[in-house]
Design brief:
0% strand; mainly alpha; elongated
């Protein structure tokens, strides 16, 4: 019985019994410097808004 592509991330091995392995897209987004910078800016804007509401 072949493993479906959706179920591949849940394959069990000795090191990670129940850990989900990130897919190709997730790995690309985690290592993309441009996307990381955009996330950094968005998170900082959200923090400024939250702190601004509290003062």
């Amino acid at each position: 019985m072949a493993v479906k592509p959706e179920e591949f991330n849940f394959a069990k091995n000795d090191k990670f019994n129940n850990a989900m392995i990130p897919g190709k897209f997730a790995r690309a987004m985690r290592t993309c410097k441009i996307w990381q910078f955009i996330r950094f800016v968005i998170i900082n804007i959200k923090m400024i808004i939250v702190v601004g509401k509290s003062h």
